[in-house]
Amino acid sequence: MTVEPARNPTLLPDNSVWLRGMRWWHVGFYTALASVVLVVLLSVEGGPVRAAMFIAIAVLAGAYPFLARLEYLETWRPRVYVVLLIATVGLLAFLSGSGAVLLFIAFPQVWMFSGSPRGGLIATAVLCIVVALGQLRLFGTDPQNLQSVALQALISFLASSMLGLWIYKIIDQSEDRGQLIAQLEAARAELAYAHQEQGAMAERERMSREIHDTLAQGFTSIIMLSEAGQARLRQRTPEAPATDLETDLAAIGATARENLQEARALIASAGPTQLQGGDLLGALRRVGEASAQDGRGVRITLPDSLPPLESAQQIAVLRCAQEALSNVRRHSGADVVELVVQSSGGDLVLTVSDNGAGFAVADSPGGYGLHSMRARLAEIAGSLELRSAPGQGTSLTMTVPLAKPAPEPEAPGPEAPGPEAPGPEAPGQKTPAQEVQTQ
Fold this sequence. Notes:
With 439 residues, this protein is an alpha+beta fold. The protein folds into three domains: 9-186, no CATH class; 214-270; 277-402, Histidine kinase-like ATPase, C-terminal domain (Heat Shock Protein 90, 2-Layer Sandwich), CATH 3.30.565. Helix content is 60%, strand content 10%. It contains eleven helices and six strands. A six-stranded mixed beta sheet has the order 4-5-3-2-1-6, with helices on one face. A hairpin with a 5-residue loop joins strand 4 (383-388) and strand 5 (394-401). The longest helix is centred in the middle third of the chain and has 71 residues, at 143-213.
């Protein structure tokens, strides 16, 4: 026998009206049984018939808690209960008219525990037929009684079927709605997890980029300075002064302290320690001068001032300058590196060039540092241009768009202003860019 899937009670919340109403179904069921017992006591004389009716009622009452439960809807137990219920009502109908008292609770139960609309229709039809046969046995099969019993059975079947199918439709809609809500909640949970993963990935990428652009470069400087100091120590004679070694040790200590400050700022999610005063030009100057600690010549060309920059723009420019100088130190083998900052055409342009070995740009996909620089600049709508050739050095040009100031309204006047006579420079006027060379 094929059992169709029953309604899924797990889709109903604990406070569902269907579950809250079950306790009243229990009360109604046992009230109906008590009414049948009372009718039997009042209308049936003692003897085997009354005993059989009491036994049937007792069996049904005892089986109800073990077979007729919502958590058993997808098992065989509710079907067994429906068969037992029909048999009990039929027995009571055959032995006495008291079986009709159970019909108002039997019809809903056969629909509730049959497991499907088809099962409910079949169980309802069997129940109506059994009760009708019992009534015909008790009251006779004359045409008038037969017509009355048949009409009563037909009306009972139609009314119960219409009500049962309507309730099934409501429950199916509730289940569909419950499944939709469950799917929406699952989709919401997946979306929240995806957002969390995306945020975690972005944070990991940010941390990786910050560590690469700060701590890793600092550690690389410490290694190179210590190796240079060891080389000098091996070549040093006893009577030679220790000035160079002291310089290397001081540079190592300064770099280590700066790395420690960067690590603390990274943990606190603060900006670069060089920019905590808001002086980008000073930070670029210090970064350029620090790259000259290994004896490489560094030329730094900076303007006297810069247009206002957002914090993200300042951080991107500083980190790109650090990464570019680090690449020169690690890969180029250059003797001289030049760092130039200028503002032109509404853009801030940072150029780092060297006279090192160079390389074929088309043959080199670029490492993590170049990808990190491009990612930083892309976040602020900037761009990176790389120019290099074997034996001709390398040049990195980073362009950051600046916010254009709002134009000032022109003062109305009756006459056009004439040419101004030359005079002394206005206060605050920019002077030509300064060039600082460290050898």
